[in-house]
Fold:
Amino acid sequence: MTIRLEEETSRDVVMALRRIIRAIDIHSKQIMHVYGISGTQAMILRQMAQTGRTTATRLAGVVHLSKSTISGVLERLENRGLIARQTDGNDRRLEWLMVTAKGEEILTSAAPLLQERFEERFQSLPGEEQNGILAALQRITELMDATDIEAASILTSGVRVSEEG
Structure:
């Protein structure tokens, strides 16, 4: 009886993980369908709007993505007219990034990102519950031999962030 219960529990954990993965995938596809930008682009655009004028290096640090990944995402956002670049008047090596009116329009009309809703709900939980969830997820990461896998702080679909950007 105990073995059967353990198998069911294991299966329930895997199903919960699959639901999380599916929720992220569905949300990413909805953002792409409705706004024509990827989840990663939406998160970076939102971060830029919150930060104000910034540089690619600072932005990469805030969202925990490599400079090369950020560079590709920024290029796509700029090509769509959602961000603009401006060279600093005093230091020509410095390039400032800012969200355009078109980018602001998308952000204003967009529903909160899945990650933002999660963070808001998670932060409303008592500290002990937050710590318990974190500990359980870290343990799952260990059980899946995934502790050494690099991950950005952005919830996005199964596509690697650098490919999705």
